[in-house]
Amino acid sequence: MTTRGLALVLAMIATTAAGATTARAAPWPKLIAIHVTMPAGATATMLVIVPSSFAASAFGAIEKTELGYGDAGVGFQITCDGDCSAGKLPGQLAKLVAHAPDADKIPNLNTGDPKLDAVRLDAVTLDHGDIPGGKFVVYRITKPAGLDGPYQEQFKAVCARLDPKQERFVVAQVWTSLAEETELGPQLVAACKSFTIASD
User: What pTM value is reported for the model?
Assistant: First the structure.
């Protein structure tokens, strides 16, 4: 990202934050570097603009509040989704992003309890499209009427972009609670769309 591009993104996020309905204690925003090491050994460093109330974690950054950790964050993973050949990567990336809302409909997987495995949440896609070198999707996960259980209702976005130096791509996912969607949602979507892959 160029210096001018970074300045424009910072200005956009700050302007949106100024119009938020609920004031937050910490100013907006900050640029942080997140170094991720996947279990299989792949590593990458991402630069991402987040609210200054966020603190770096092993795979991203999460919101910190006076009471501890909040319900918002950003996480990264490095993958080629099963096929690392250069010609297949754009299609693999697009398929992963497009499938993200459907994947989040399934909160339980192979639990051994057929009733739990059958639970489905509702997913509504709010926006989707292209980013430089990749794709994004924004969606909302909610519980259908009558569903009991500790299932989280969240505002989410998934963004993936090709690594310009290696045959792989990096996936960013951002999330917040529905209670904070109006305030945090625009900033987190901007963070998701604008992250860059830095040199390790």
Answer: 0.83
